[in-house]
Amino acid sequence: MANSKYEYVRFFEQPDNLLPNTWIVVRIDGRSFTKFAKKYNFGKPNDRRALDLMNESAKSVMKELPDIVVAYGVSDEYSFVFHKSCTLFERRKSKLVSTIVSTFSAYYIHHWLSFFPSSPLEPPLPTFDGRAVVYPSLQNLRDYMSWRQVDCHVNNLYNTTFWALIKKGGLDNEDAERELAGTLAKDKNEILFSRFGINYNNEPEIFRKGSVVFRSYPTPTPPPKSTAESLTPSSLLA
Amino acid sequence: MANSKYEYVRFFEQPDNLLPNTWIVVRIDGRSFTKFAKKYNFGKPNDRRALDLMNESAKSVMKELPDIVVAYGVSDEYSFVFHKSCTLFERRKSKLVSTIVSTFSAYYIHHWLSFFPSSPLEPPLPTFDGRAVVYPSLQNLRDYMSWRQVDCHVNNLYNTTFWALIKKGGLDNEDAERELAGTLAKDKNEILFSRFGINYNNEPEIFRKGSVVFRSYPTPTPPPKSTAESLTPSSLLA
Amino acid sequence: MANSKYEYVRFFEQPDNLLPNTWIVVRIDGRSFTKFAKKYNFGKPNDRRALDLMNESAKSVMKELPDIVVAYGVSDEYSFVFHKSCTLFERRKSKLVSTIVSTFSAYYIHHWLSFFPSSPLEPPLPTFDGRAVVYPSLQNLRDYMSWRQVDCHVNNLYNTTFWALIKKGGLDNEDAERELAGTLAKDKNEILFSRFGINYNNEPEIFRKGSVVFRSYPTPTPPPKSTAESLTPSSLLA
Amino acid sequence: MANSKYEYVRFFEQPDNLLPNTWIVVRIDGRSFTKFAKKYNFGKPNDRRALDLMNESAKSVMKELPDIVVAYGVSDEYSFVFHKSCTLFERRKSKLVSTIVSTFSAYYIHHWLSFFPSSPLEPPLPTFDGRAVVYPSLQNLRDYMSWRQVDCHVNNLYNTTFWALIKKGGLDNEDAERELAGTLAKDKNEILFSRFGINYNNEPEIFRKGSVVFRSYPTPTPPPKSTAESLTPSSLLA
Asked: Which one, of A111, A119, A144, A107, lies nearest residue A27 by Cα?
């Protein structure tokens, strides 16, 4: 069959192999999750079921893709790290990003009812976008992780205070926003403590620091197939 | 909060905006679908439920992404076309690919039970990878579509004959392969007709030509919101 | 010889082939030419010898690279156009840009004394940088050319008026700048005409419109090897 | 002036900033130098004047571009290394490559008569192409340098033996090629020594090992402006 007449279109495909010897991070983000969280009544400022579902989906991704060495999640985003020596899919960017996004999305839908048993999903469904970035040095990678964790901390302290002002302080959204405008971390800590008796440092670590999925390699006996577990890091900060 | 110390890692993100004024095609492909099809006992050479599920998922993608103008599917792959004037996501490649792959995967899982009610999904789940290619001219785009449809035709004629030899002719896989080695299209047509009384041209169009999802814009009255429908094209060949 | 130990470094080279079926424009620009023009006392607002040297160098480039179909120059910049069907160097961007920049630079130095016989070059030498851009449609290419020509017109009208104010009007640089701030094209035309008796439309076309180098293909007799000539276009505007 | 109508063409320019925190190597190569060397009767197997001209041009490049930390040359190629922290031209690939290629080409033409005083250049002129590659680690960079130097060694040993067979052994090109087919380094050393009394290790280092241009920073007194010198390295091999 003369397929050759059309096969020239293949030459429009442009290679996108990522630079060798660099750490690959694929970060996925929930699309329109503010709206989605409202639709399914996610708790504020954090919904433990939603975070557990993110973590469960991330663990499924790591089980299916053994090349991922570690993953870090916060809110509706997750970062998956491939070792700098990784050669999966010849390091093709689109292939790596799309495979992770597809796998994560599939498991998020699949696991949904285990975490939200009384709220079956209705279209529009939750979806994620993704991107890949490469980092030449381990220090760059650590700083990337710290960047995400600082983001987690800053957002969570704000959200915790914001929702305390609303739920316990009786303010409406606008007033709570105004109250927090220009405040520093210590101001928010003070508001939480003096007005609502909340010691921010006693808030659950999973809210304050995010989640890490890493591989556990038992050392004494011959190593079985690796498994993926999630935990909250005491700190990822450099 | 001094986030700036780590924020430099943003500069490692490299832009991937696709060239303006070109047709964007995002093609997704099922990952390890041979194994997946066997696990869920897909019919051979074609499984109508599986194709209907692909089409239903593609329609869901088009409903969520109004910028897609047309989509073409065959087997476990689907091509989504954005108009050359499209500016969605500033034409960022990773964003376009990951959003389509995520949305398709989510709906594939979500719709599964409607098409395979007696076979609930078990991990590993079906997933898809994706890539984006741009075509400068309408002729290039037509040729891309023809390329995929010729592929559909070549594969389906082969598979139809192969499975007729096995199911109706009693051959095993190796013998069927040997029988077909080096045969032309007319030879396969002849085998089907003379040995099994099958006129290949009477096979369902959805098997021979693939599926198209397009938008229907009613013309006489003021246009309501567009809807997405799928059909089998009489021909996409140029 | 065991070269293989180090040859892995080749895999760090990333392909940069330009998209097929698009018009390639390589534009080169003089580096620090304001300073360079001062050093060699280029005439103001235009130096005919400098423009002739640019044109001569561009013609040399076109003689050495038969794949270039047309070139357009203004001031210290030149744009070289490759046909959308061009396959030179497999359309590798770095190879195309570096070859044109190298050839242009070599001839600029080589021809220098023919145009500035009494001013031999001394380091630092005149050099050029370059970039490649692809345009999917002929209209895009025309608009690119128009963009450069409008730039030529805007700059030349400004410079012509600016230097008339200084040379004939006795103003210093600051006063001339102030005088022109906020003026429209018609204002500058009026200044030139009413104060200095200059009808801008009578200025040499090479200053007002730039230069084009194209190939002349004699039609009646069997075509000899193409030659490259430069001329001033009556207009490139769409 | 309504330039905006055409200015949209700017959006076709695609950024090409090189990944931060990686070593940048720009390698230039002579175009068609076999033919060029024949035209100007370059000595065989090496022409000292031609190498000195390459080195002189490389030194000029390093004087004009203080961001280059070291350069390595062999035959008609030269590699220029920018530090991984370099931010010159925002690390834009085309800008870096074209500037180096242009500067090198300009000085090669400019210096020519100092090295070939009796052979003025005639078109077609010598030109160079160039490319940029980034290396994430210092080890990768060292291996790149070793790769080029091994190449120098392999080629020079072959050429030295080849031309000895012709010039001193009276063979023609075909016979010399046949004689060397399949030989190892030690075989070539043996041919040189036993037949022609040549101890390869006594050949000039500049032929056997290539040339390095580095910056000399005097340490005892306050550092003056850096200068660029060339030398032959005892060894670049790791």
From this structure: A144
* Mode of pairing for the β-strands spanning A68-74 and A77-82: antiparallel
Mean pLDDT of C113-132: 98
- The reply to whether B231 touches chain D by the CB within 8 Å rule is no
Nearest to A127 among B3, B103, B140 (CB): B103
Shortest CA distance to D130 belongs to which of D196, D71, D218? D71
Share of chain C above pLDDT 90, in %: 89
Other CB atoms within 10 Å distance of the CB of residue C144: 24
Token pair of A6 as six digits:
């059309």
| D132:C93 CB<8 A | no
Contact B136 C137 (CB under 8 A): yes
DSSP string, chain B: --THHHHGGGGG----BPPTTSEEEEEEEETTHHHHHHHTT--SS--HHHHHHHHHHHHHHHHH-TTEEEEEEETTEEEEEE-TT--GGGGBHHHHHHHHHHHHHHHHHHHHHHHSTT----SSPP-EEEEEEEESSHHHHHHHHHHHHHHHHHHHHHHHHHHHHHHTT---HHHHHHHHTT--HHHHHHHHHHHH---GGGS-HHHHH-EEEEEE---SSPP-S-EEEEE--S----
Cα B171 → chain centroid: 30
> DSSP states of chain D as a string?
---HHHHGGGGG----BPPTTSEEEEEEEETTHHHHHHHTT--SS--HHHHHHHHHHHHHHHHH-TTEEEEEEETTEEEEEE-TT--GGGGBHHHHHHHHHHHHHHHHHHHHHHHSTT----SSPP-EEEEEEEESSHHHHHHHHHHHHHHHHHHHHHHHHHHHHHHTT---HHHHHHHHTT--HHHHHHHHHHHH---GGGS-HHHHH-EEEEEE---SSPP-S-EEEEE--S----
Residue A25, number of CB atoms within 10 A of its CB = 24
CB contact D84 to C (< 8 Å) = no
Please compute, for residue C95, the number of CA atoms within 13 A of its CA located in the half-sphere on the CB side: 13
The model's confidence at residue B217, banded by pLDDT at 50, 70 and 90, is confident
The rounded distance, in Å, linking the Cα atoms of A3 and B86 is 30
Query: What DSSP element (H or E) covers A93?
Result: helix A93-115
Q: What is the pTM of this model?
A: 0.92
Chain C: partners with 3+ C-beta pairs within 8 Å:
A, B, D
Is C135 in CB contact (< 8 Å) with chain D?
Answer: yes
Which tokens hold the place of A144? 């990337």
Cβ contact, residue pair B22, C140, below 8 Å: no
**CA triple C43-C45-C46, angle to 5 deg:** 60
Element (H, E) at A30: strand A23-30
Buried b (16+ CB within 10 A) or exposed e, D68-80: bebbbbbbbbbbb
Nearest residue of chain B to residue A32 (CA atoms): B99
What gap in Å lies between CA C193 and CA C177, rounded to an integer? 18
- D229: tokens are 């010198």
Eight-state DSSP code of residue A83 = -
The pLDDT tens digits for A137-165 are 999 999 999 999 999 999 999 999 999 99
Run of H or E including C205: helix C205-209
Question: What pLDDT shows up at residue B220?
Answer: 63
> What is residue A23's three-state secondary structure?
strand
User: Cβ contacts of residue B34 below 8 Å, gap of 6+?
Assistant: none
Q: Residue written as tokens 């210290």?
A: C76
Distance set, CA A3 to CA A66, A78, D13 (Å)? 37, 42, 34
CA of C68, closest CA in chain D: separation in Å?
A: 17
This model of the complex carries an ipTM of: 0.91
Contact status, residue D23 vs residue D82, Cβ threshold 8 Å: yes
